[in-house]
Amino acid sequence: IAKEWMLITAGDEANGYNTMTASWGHLGSLWNKPTAICYVRPQRYTKEFIDRESYYTLCFFPEAFHKALGYLGTKSGRDEDKVAKVGLTPVFGEGYTYFAEAELVLVCRTLYQAPLKEEYFRDAAVMDANYPERDFHDLYIGAIEKVLVKE
């Protein structure tokens, strides 16, 4: 995830959707379920969608899409149709959105959300390096309910 990045996408065709690039995340098992964890800063437009919806997707792409993911991570969907600008094709499932060009899609149902908080950092250097403005991410734990693999 750190090197290849992923798109976190929430929303659907009826109510709109937004996506953002992320390089932080975890996959594993929690509460007897396969889970994915992602992080979203409060100022990101995608946060409005992930907070509103029950599902989000994590999309992973071939290396050829790295430039597009870079663009999607620096522009806001509030200001433009950034998905159309980079040429991705949205695909709408029941309550979620992913992209046809993705090699791997994890469809996640949000189980838990919590903000990271200053008082819980045990290493101030990590906090200072990543949150100089104290705009802490929210953590989202999602049950992986569907895995789509491009053939």
What does this structure look like?
The protein has 151 residues and is of the alpha+beta class. It has four helices and nine strands. A seven-stranded antiparallel beta sheet has the order 2-1-5-8-9-4-3. A two-stranded antiparallel ribbon has the order 6-7. Strand 1 and strand 2 (16-22) form a beta hairpin. The radius of gyration is 15 Å and the shape is globular. The mean pLDDT is 96.
Residue share in β-strands: 35-45%
Q: Element order, helices and strands?
A: EEEEHEHHEEEHE
- Number of E strands: 9
- Overall pLDDT score: 96
Shape: globular
* Estimated radius of gyration: 15 Å
The secondary-structure class comes to: alpha+beta
How is the largest sheet built, in terms of strand order? 2-1-5-8-9-4-3
Number of helices: 4
Termini Cα gap: 21 Å
Biggest sheet architecture: 7 strands, antiparallel
Helicity level: 10-25%
| Low-confidence runs | none
